[in-house]
């Protein structure tokens, strides 16, 4: 039998309610802050990602799904969410709008990686970007958006970790300080970190190897290399987060995985943080637009894997109402009653009542079992006797007495029963 590719997952009905809880909650938090939805193509020109993410990153070297189309163009499945949004901002002239332009998306991301819990080769993200304003207040709003989304979902024990990587003019000095620190320790680094020592020494700080992580504790810190402007920006951001009562901790090893970040970087991690535990994160990327050949566009944003969010909802014991749950179950007790049952179900749905309808005549006991499985609060029974008399039998499933009502009055009477009225 043909099976799904490794590192992908089928989204089954059992998780649909919780998935929708995440996306609806995020969308509502975005709307409260004036963020507008955006959608970008699943495929982009490969250059969009190779230019922006950095040649030495894992994403550029081994994780992108790239191919040549029949026209000879190199295309890549969307491997991260930010660069396509920046490209869309520039290409569609959004710089002519009032700044910052605040955008959000719910999208799929494709990366060839080792599959593990909450990490798939096709995974899904909620994300937001604010473009066109360099103020630390915009950073604070972006962080508040993600923090508020988690809290609205009932995930209130995540730790916000914060750092600043400074600006391009101070990055070379910091990079050299890391090279000077790690070079004498090269024999204690793993092979991946030794390779990064020459290609991208900042990424050594992100190593999940415990032995390398221990060496990183005494490594030079990016905060010690900030210029005056970047320092003022970071200090202002911390003050704003404190005023919003968003707790945070400085993590000097926090660098994120893509090279386009400058100044603010942040992540949300759970209390039992493991090597792949980050639930969401992001940062500022004021020079990304220039990497794709556009003018300077300051920006800040985040991405949060929905699959990771679902794992944390499970950890916190949060559940969602199954959208398949019915308010009413309409039961035809005879084949001749099927058409009437479907017509009544149609009328109820037009009135906003969620209805499960039986498709064939069966015994009351059989239909009531199905009504119970659908979690309906009232069953509507239509048999041969009811058809003759133009009535239906309403049976509240909380144990209240069964009553007969005219078919013409059925919708209003069912709504009254669901509202708790007699």
Indicate the mean pLDDT: 91
* Total count of strands: 16
Shape: elongated
Proportion of residues in helical segments: 25-40%
How many domains? 2
Sheet having the most strands: 8 strands, mixed
Cα radius of gyration in angstroms: 28 Å
Number of helices: 15
Strand order of the largest sheet: 1-5-6-11-10-9-7-8
Low-confidence stretches: none
CATH architectural arrangement of the largest domain: 2-Layer Sandwich
Structural class by sheet pairing and helices: alpha+beta
CATH class of the largest domain: Alpha Beta
Tell me the CATH superfamily of the largest domain: Bira Bifunctional Protein, Domain 2
CATH topology of the largest domain: BirA Bifunctional Protein, domain 2
Calculate the terminal CA-CA distance, rounded to whole Å: 55 Å
Portion in beta strands:
15-25%
Describe the overall structure.
It is a single chain. Helices cover 37% and strands 20% of the residues. By secondary structure, it is an alpha+beta fold. It has 2 domains: 13-170 and 226-315, Bira Bifunctional Protein, Domain 2 (BirA Bifunctional Protein, domain 2, 2-Layer Sandwich); 328-418, Anticodon-binding domain (Rossmann fold, 3-Layer(aba) Sandwich), CATH 3.40.50. An 8-stranded mixed beta sheet has the order 1-5-6-11-10-9-7-8, with helices on both faces. A 5-stranded mixed beta sheet has the order 13-12-14-15-16, sandwiched between helices. β15 (391-396) and β16 (403-406) form a beta hairpin. The longest helix has 20 residues, at 13-32. The radius of gyration is 28 Å and the shape is elongated. The protein starts with 12 loop residues before the first helix and ends with a helix. The mean pLDDT is 91.
């Amino acid at each position: 039998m043909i099976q799904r590719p490794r590192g992908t997952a089928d989204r089954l009905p059992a998780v649909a309610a919780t998935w929708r809880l995440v996306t609806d909650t995020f969308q509502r938090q975005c709307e409260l802050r004036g963020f507008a939805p955006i959608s970008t193509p699943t495929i982009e020109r490969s250059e969009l990602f190779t230019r922006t993410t950095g040649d030495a990153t894992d994403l550029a070297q081994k994780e992108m799904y790239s191919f040549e189309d029949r026209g000879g163009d190199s295309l890549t499945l969307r491997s991260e969410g930010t660069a396509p949004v920046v490209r869309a901002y520039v290409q569609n002239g959004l710089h002519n709008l009032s700044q910052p332009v605040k955008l959000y998306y719910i999208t799929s991301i494709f990366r060839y990686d080792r599959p593990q819990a909450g990490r798939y080769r096709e995974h899904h993200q909620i994300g937001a970007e604010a473009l066109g304003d360099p103020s630390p207040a915009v950073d604070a709003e972006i962080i508040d958006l993600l923090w508020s989304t988690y809290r609205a979902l009932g995930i209130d024990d995540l730790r916000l970790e914060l750092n600043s990587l400074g600006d391009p003019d101070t990055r070379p000095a910091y990079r050299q300080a890391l090279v000077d620190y790690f070079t004498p320790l090269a024999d204690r680094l793993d092979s991946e970190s030794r390779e990064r020592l020459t290609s991208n020494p900042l990424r050594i700080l992100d190593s999940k190897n415990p032995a390398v992580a221990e060496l990183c504790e005494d490594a030079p810190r990016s905060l010690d290399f900030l210029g005056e402007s970047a320092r003022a920006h970071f200090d202002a951001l911390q003050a704003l987060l404190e005023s919003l009562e968003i707790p945070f901790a400085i993590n000097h090893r926090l660098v994120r995985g893509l090279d386009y970040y400058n100044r603010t970087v942040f992540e949300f991690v759970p209390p039992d943080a493991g090597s792949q535990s980050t639930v969401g994160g992001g940062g500022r990327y004021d020079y990304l637009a220039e990497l794709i050949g556009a003018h300077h566009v300051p920006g800040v944003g985040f991405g949060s894997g929905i699959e990771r969010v679902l794992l944390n909802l499970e950890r916190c014991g949060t559940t969602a109402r199954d959208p398949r749950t019915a308010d009413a179950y309409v039961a035809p007790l005879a084949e001749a009653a099927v058409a009437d049952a479907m017509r009544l179900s149609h009328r109820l749905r037009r009135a906003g009542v969620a209805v499960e309808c039986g498709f064939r005549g069966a015994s009351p006991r059989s239909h009531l079992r199905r009504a119970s499985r659908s979690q309906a609060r009232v069953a509507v029974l239509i048999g041969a006797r009811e058809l003759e008399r133009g009535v239906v039998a309403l049976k509240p499933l909380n144990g209240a007495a069964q009553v007969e009502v005219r078919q013409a009055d059925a919708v209003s009477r069912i709504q009254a029963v669901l509202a708790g009225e007699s």
